[in-house]
Specification:
This protein is an alpha+beta fold. The protein has seven helices and eight strands, in the order H-H-H-H-H-E-E-H-H-E-E-E-E-E-E. The strands form two sheets. A six-stranded antiparallel beta sheet has the order 3-8-4-5-6-7. The protein starts with a helix and ends with a strand.
């Protein structure tokens, strides 16, 4: 009996020992755990950030210069350089007048194609109201000056130039005169829906597309 009792006791006591709590924490460990719990409770590891600050730039926020934009910038730079050169030339112009050109035309053999070519030499000349030399042109003064170099006399008036013999649009060729709005403006046709003209104050002689259907063509020199 004395042997059996201890055996039974040990069998019962063993599960009780295994289920018991681990040894209590040291005072330092308990203090550290308490500090960690306090930090968590206070939100010390959290930061409130404005929602706008978290916005990531969309693809549309960024751009690159396209080849077309680079080409447009290059052409604009060329136009600016040409404009500056022609303005300097205009300021010192001392060449022949329309009257002098008519008396001694540098191109005695008239050609509409040659008219179109000569006209393009004056790109960049500033618009000047009443102007009829490379010191400055208005629209009819420009047409008059170009034609004078071929010995063709034209009036210094867009409405008067607009009364020259009219031709069908299908018959128009580079060098013919294009007339707008019943004679309020004129230029020189270059073909392909393009023209060269002296537009208005602040602009220069330039090539551009025909900008309105309200136009017709007249022919001089032939």
């Amino acid at each position: 009996m004395t042997v059996a009792v201890p055996a039974i006791f040990c069998t019962v006591a063993l599960p009780a020992y295994a289920a018991s709590d681990p040894a209590p924490k040291t005072a330092a460990a308990a203090q550290a755990a308490a500090k960690l719990d306090a930090l968590k409770a206070s939100g010390a590891q959290e930061e409130n950030v404005d929602a706008g600050a978290l916005t990531v730039g969309a693809r549309a926020d960024y751009s690159a210069t396209s080849a077309a934009e680079l080409e447009a910038a290059r052409l604009e730079q060329q136009r600016a350089q040409l404009k500056a050169a022609m303005a300097a030339r205009a300021a010192t112009y001392s060449g022949p007048s329309v009257r002098q050109l008519l008396s001694n035309p540098p191109y005695p053999s008239f050609s509409l194609a040659a008219v179109a070519q000569v006209a393009q030499q004056y790109q960049g000349v500033p618009y000047v109201y009443g102007g009829s030399t490379p010191a400055g042109f208005d629209c009819s003064g420009f047409v008059m000056y170009v034609y004078a170099q071929f010995g063709v006399a034209l009036p210094h008036s867009s409405s008067a130039q607009g009364r020259l013999p009219q031709i069908a649009p299908s018959a128009a060729v580079p060098g013919d005169i294009i007339v707008f709005d019943g004679g309020s403006h004129v230029g020189i046709y270059l073909g392909g829906n393009m023209m060269i003209h002296a537009p208005y104050p602040g602009r220069t002689v330039s090539i551009q597309q025909i900008y309105t259907t309200n136009h017709y063509f007249v022919r001089a020199g032939i």
